[in-house]
TrEMBL record, chain A:
Keywords, comma-separated and alphabetical: Molybdenum, Oxidoreductase
Full protein name: Xanthine dehydrogenase family protein molybdopterin-binding subunit
Highest taxon, organism lineage: Bacteria
InterPro entries in the record: Ald_Oxase/Xan_DH_a/b, Ald_Oxase/Xan_DH_a/b_sf, Ald_Oxase/xanthine_DH-like, AldOxase/xan_DH_MoCoBD1, AldOxase/xan_DH_MoCoBD2, AldOxase/xan_DH_Mopterin-bd_sf
SMART domains: Ald_Xan_dh_C
Single GO molecular function: iron ion binding
Coiled coil: none
Cross-referenced Pfam families: Ald_Xan_dh_C, MoCoBD_1, MoCoBD_2
Keyword Nucleus included in the entry's annotation: no
Domain called Aldehyde oxidase/xanthine dehydrogenase a/b hammerhead: residue spans: 20-140
Signal sequence interval, chain numbering: none
């Protein structure tokens, strides 16, 4: 193999169409005879449908059909893809999420749909939906997960009066942890909220269902992160259609951040309706619906305690968390607070005893599911807030406290991986260097001097640290199967060498901003020793790509890329047989480099293109060898991958107003080997912005009726460029020992490490001004910071 | 037309969002955005005349404004973001009368006059009297704002100090202070109360050499981003910052 492209910051080949407005998103697709849908939705978080009067709406010109819950009673609800049972073995409670709420039933969150109105234009459908008269009987509602557990709280599902979906624990027996905490010289206790945030992909969800009567085949165009998974869920669990009679296409998709992993009711409804009517049906979410209905993220209420001995060594960790699941269990929802969160709660510290106690509850809110980082940001937030606070409380340096407690270096090759107290075995790690590099970039000693000077002025300075480890590249199928996953989490790839030596690569990964069309092609071109222009990447269409589990959990290169590597190996293996035959030598006498096979020690060689042509025009050809040069592979990873890093925030706090300015954001990440440094930097930058957004700006606000009161961009604050400093990033490289590219994944790291660093920095600033506060609720609005200084 | 369920549309930055949320559904929209009579910035005698249809961006970039009313240029440059500034107009903002909009504090402090035209002719109202309550003004339904006329304030110092709501970038507190050449102060606030207002009490306290209490006796807004107590505190902080800027 050559190394022309791997490790190079090749400009993204997909950007030409994106930045010139030539991308083709679902809403750009116009099919002949296409109709438009709009939903009649519950204005209440909890209300019984007393009656639905469609008389006026049905009579409006241009209205084609209106369906209600009674029309779709035979369709199953959208399924949950992960089962986590109660710790006593009782089965997870899994309420049906009906396609449309029928008369007599109750809507369980604001925006729950009662009817789909289909019309010739979106405007007509919207007007008609407004004319559908629904009589509602409003019922009490609860949005806060801790409130939902209290006696007498409004019930989300009558059959589950305690509002509990399941409870779960992990780690050492609680008695052992209690004993460790009792013996600790110091215990840092922190009660906090990891608030609910809205994913806010730039492209709202959009779907087109189209039924072809002649072929008896459906096509669903969908703004999704995993077309094949949507096909599987919709065919096998919801609509009961044979899988080969459905084509699912995820064209250009403008961001997902997790929210487009899941199968939503609207996808199934437009698909179903297209057959009822015999015309394609499109639905595009507006931004208000996106705020209300895209699965949200985070939403934990936690009490965490960390015990230390007199020297600052961690002795134990005890955690009690209530996690909000929303009204229904979304596709991956049960895994997020459990196996993607609890298993990361050792972080990168030697911790003798850990116990995690999770209670996952229903509320009258839209579902909570994986959102960039999915459980690992929550775990990192908890640990890193404890670490910095413990250092302040014990009068220790927060960096020194971490160095003291880091798990020692292990490469997973010469030493085994590191077995944690909470089920996972980290693959490779070398934690001290990322913090050392971060401190060097910060200029730590100078900073503390500047902080002391600032404390005399109106602007306090603070620094916050966060060192994280996360789990990417999900995941070994047998492992996740044992943990309740109802799917495997491998990936497929096909490498099809065309007769002229040009290469089409079909991947089950799905790019919706990650730059796969560049990164994956860099890998293929280098491994085959051919120009990048000779390789195309095909993804996002279930009729052309054999199968796929899609893109989330920073898995695409580690899992999807590994599947491609397997197929490339098969291509080169067969190519060598053909080359040896043509060159009249033994395969073992050949080397492959720069796109040609050469007989060792001679100048006799044959190029990749000639071998490809021979494979398809097999006139002079090895006996018994099949023609063609086209290989498919499935790759099931041996383990998760475990990137890690150090994020450091420096803030300035205006004492008069409480306004926080993020002055510096330093990120030193170790994501394993890097194929395209520019794309990895971009992923880190985007993740940092998102993590900073949670710390400083973002967060849902529900009122006492469980209504989202800040579901617009006028009220819900997204981080903007002028809110952020120029990011200072660097990398360390500890290769993944168990996949062929040595890559770990970079999509979520920025969002995982940054949030606690920013909050820690504000707390540090306040302590420097004499305000010894333990916590400030996120987002740290100026008023919250001001109150922390003036309570 | 305007009296009969119609609405005038210029930059659309106040009206269109309400229509998208289906809170407003006028039968007729009349695009006044290209009327030449509403455009242009000029000096007329002792006044700077800004057409109601001039965008915030054009005001921020105007050399005439920078020369005679620098507060208007820097204030305009803090409205929303570039796309808002390139579409939204001063007349539209004033007519909409969002309590947190930036223009009201500035035009009140600068003692501007709003010129309105209706079927029965032209009317003028001082900015100080124009804003009558939450989203309500002295403008009649059948009238259109045509001009904002502002005294030139030669030799005066002026400033607009703003604490932004982070999402919308409207003013949680917007404090405009004009200090005339003879030292007289005019103080006005946006964002603090249900309507923008001239803070005469603060002016009086300051003119008698006392420390001023901002927004004394006013009802104070409260929302997710700023409670009544915090907003009142910010009004004082921003009054002091504004006074420091014109000192």
């Amino acid at each position: 193999m050559s190394n022309k492209f791997i490790g190079q910051s090749i400009k993204r080949v997909e950007d030409k169409r994106f930045i010139t407005g030539k991308g083709r998103y679902t809403d750009d697709i116009v099919l002949p005879g296409m109709l438009h849908a709009h939903f009649v939705r519950s204005p209440y978080a909890h209300a019984r449908v007393v009656s639905i009067d469609m008389t006026e709406a049905k009579a409006m010109p241009g209205v084609i059909a209106i369906y209600t819950g009674d029309d779709v009673a035979d369709i199953n609800g959208v399924p949950c893809g992960w089962q986590v049972n109660f710790r006593n073995g009782e089965t997870m409670r899994e309420p049906k999420h009906p396609m449309l709420i029928p008369t007599g039933s109750t809507a369980k969150h604001a925006g729950d749909a009662v009817a789909i109105v289909i019309a010739e234009t979106k405007a007509i459908a919207t007007d008609a939906a407004e004319s559908v008269m629904v009589e509602w009987d409003e019922l009490p509602a609860v949005a806060n997960p801790a409130e939902a557990l209290k006696p007498g709280a409004p019930k989300v599902h009558e059959q589950f009066p305690d509002n509990t979906a399941f409870d779960w624990s992990l780690g050492n027996p609680i008695e052992e942890v209690d004993a460790a905490m009792a013996a600790a010289a110091h215990v840092t206790t922190l009660e906090f909220v990891n608030q609910r945030v809205v994913p806010n992909a730039m492209e709202p969800r959009a779907y087109i269902g189209a039924y072809d009567e002649m072929a008896d085949k459906y096509t669903l165009y969908t703004s999704t992160q995993n077309p094949h998974l949507i096909r599987l869920l919709m065919c096998a669990f919801v609509l009961g259609i044979p899988e080969h009679k459905v084509r699912v296409v995820g064209p250009d998709v403008g961001g997902g951040f997790g929210s487009k992993i899941y199968h939503y009711t609207e996808e199934a409804l437009v698909t179903w309706a297209s057959k009822q009517i015999g015309q394609p049906v499109k639905w595009t979410s507006d931004r208000s619906e996106a705020f209300l209905l895209d699965a949200h993220g985070r939403d934990h209420v936690t009490k965490a305690e960390m015990g230390f001995d007199a020297d600052g060594n961690v002795m134990g960790l005890r955690i009690k968390t209530v996690a909000n699941m929303g009204a229904y269990l979304s596709t991956f929802a049960p895994a997020v607070p459990t196996y993607l969160h609890g298993t990361l709660l050792q972080g990168l510290y030697v911790t003798p005893k850990i116990n995690i106690d999770m209670t996952c509850v229903f509320t009258h809110t839209v579902a909570v599911d994986a959102y960039r980082g999915a459980g690992r940001p929550e775990a990192t937030y908890l640990l890193e807030r404890l670490m910095d606070l413990a250092a302040l409380e014990m009068g220790m340096d927060p960096a020194e406290l971490r160095f003291k407690n880091f798990i020692p270096k292990f490469d997973g090759v010469n030493e085994p991986g590191y077995q944690t107290q909470v089920a996972l075995q980290y693959d490779s790690g070398d934690y001290a260097p990322v913090l050392e590099r971060g401190l060097e970039m910060l200029g730590y000693n100078d900073f503390r001097a500047a902080q002391q000077e600032a404390a005399k002025t109106n602007k306090l300075l603070g620094v916050g640290f966060s060192t994280y480890v996360e789990a990417c590249g999900i995941a070994p199928s047998a492992v996740v199967g044992a943990l309740g996953a109802r799917a495997g989490l491998y990936e497929s790839a096909q490498v099809r060498v065309q007769p002229t030596g040009k290469v089409s690569v079909f991947t089950g990964s799905h790019s919706h901003g990650q730059g796969h069309e560049t990164t994956f092609v860099q890998v293929v071109a280098d491994k085959l020793g051919i120009p990048m222009e000779d390789v195309e990447l095909v993804h996002g269409d279930s009729d052309t790509v054999a199968f796929g589990m899609g893109t989330y959990g920073s898995r695409s290169l580690a899992v999807g890329g590994s599947a491609i590597m397997k197929s490339i190996d098969k291509v080169l293996e067969k190519g060598a047989k053909i080359a040896a035959h043509k060159l009249e030598c033994a395969e073992g006498d050949l080397t492959y480099d720069e796109g040609k096979w050469t007989v060792k020690g001679t100048d006799k060689s044959i190029g990749f293109g000639d071998v490809a042509l021979t494979a398809y025009v097999p006139h002079v050809y090895p006996a018994g060898l099949e023609p063609g040069l086209d290989f498919s592979s499935f790759y099931d990873p041996a383990n998760f991958t475990y990137p890690f890093g150090c994020h450091i925030a420096v803030v300035e706090v205006d004492k008069e107003t409480g306004k926080t300015t993020l002055k510096r954001m330093i990120a030193v990440d170790d994501v394993g080997n890097v194929i395209n440094p520019m794309i990895v930097d971009g992923q880190i930058h985007g993740g940092l912005a998102q993590g900073i957004g949670q710390a400083m700006f973002e967060g849902t606000i529900y009122d006492e009726n469980a209504q989202l009161t800040n579901g617009t961009y006028m009220d819900y604050c997204m981080p903007r460029a002028d809110d952020l400093p120029l990011f200072e990033t660097d990398r360390r490289t500890t290769p993944c020992p168990h996949n062929p590219l040595g890559v770990k994944g970079a999509g979520e790291a920025g969002a995982i490490g940054s949030t606690p660093a920013v909050v820690n920095a504000v707390i540090d600033a306040l302590w420097s001004g004499g305000h010894q506060v333990k916590d400030i609720l996120m987002p740290m609005t100026p008023e919250r910071v001001w109150r922390a200084m003036n309570n | 037309m305007l009296a009969d369920g119609g609405k005038a549309l210029s930059g659309g930055h106040s009206l269109i969002p309400t229509m998208k949320l289906r809170l407003n559904a006028p039968d007729v929209l009349v695009d006044v955005g290209r009327l030449p009579e509403l455009k242009g910035i000029s000096v007329d005698g002792s006044e700077l005349v800004i057409g109601a249809g001039v965008t915030h961006g054009a005001i921020a970039a105007s050399d005439l404004v920078k020369k005679h009313l620098p507060m208007f240029a820097t204030g305009a440059s803090q409205i929303g973001d570039p796309s808002v500034r390139n579409r939204g107009t001063i007349g539209g903002s004033i007519a909409h009368a969002d309590p947190s909009a930036d223009w009201p504090a500035m035009i009140i402090a600068a003692d501007a006059t709003i010129v309105m035209q209706g079927p029965s002719g032209t009317r003028k109202v001082k900015a100080e009297q124009f804003f009558t309550g939450l989203f309500s003004t002295a403008l009649h339904e059948n009238e259109l704002i045509t001009q904002i006329r502002v005294p030139l304030h030669d030799g005066a110092k002026m400033t607009y100090q703003k604490f932004s709501q982070p999402a919308s970038r409207y003013a949680i507190v917007g404090c405009a202070v004009v200090k005339s050449a003879d030292g007289k102060l005019r103080v006005a606030f946006s964002g603090v109360s249900e309507a923008p207002f001239r803070d005469k009490k603060a002016e009086e306290q300051l003119s008698s050499g006392q420390p001023a209490e901002a927004a004394a006796g006013m009802s104070i807004l409260s929302d997710h981003y700023a409670s009544e107590e915090y907003r009142k505190h910010l009004a004082n902080v921003y009054l002091n910052r504004a006074l420091a800027a014109v000192a």
